[in-house]
Amino acid sequence: MSITKQYLKSRPVCKITFTVPAIEANQVVVVGDFNEWNPEVTSLKKQKNGNFKGTFDLPKDNSYEFRYIIDGEYTNEEEADAFVWNDFGGAENAVLHV
After folding, report:
1. How confident is the model at residue 59 (pLDDT cuts 50, 70, 90)?
2. Helices marked H in 16-93 — which ranges?
3. Among 64, 75, 97, which Cα is nearest to 20's?
4. How far is the CA of 57 from the CAs of 44, 73, 81, 84, 88, in angstroms?
5. Do 77 and 94 touch, CB atoms closer than 8 A?
């Protein structure tokens, strides 16, 4: 799994690209503070190489908690900027600093 950040000079946003290797998966979604944890909004698209990928614009100078949902199972980004405990989910959430 990986995250790529591209800061734009023309606007106060950062293009975030999420890449998740999940060859056997049917669906990968990223949910978090930036989309109100709504799995209907940010599906990643399956690539020919089996990775799922998606790019989203996020306002910079913020931190966002997020997780992936791979075929219904929540998982964290191993390369996240940080991790924080979530009492509601009973697990850690990944944190992205933009």
Report:
1. very high
2. none
3. 75
4. 14, 25, 17, 23, 27
5. yes
Nearest Cα neighbor of 97 from 2, 14, 1 is 14
pLDDT at residue 87 above 90? no
Question: What's residue 11's pLDDT?
Answer: 92
Q: Could you tell me which residue, 88 or 8, shows the higher pLDDT?
A: 8
Residue 65 CB coordination number (10 Å): 20
Total residue count of the chain as it appears in this document: 98
- Pairwise CA distance, residues 39 & 28, whole Å: 9
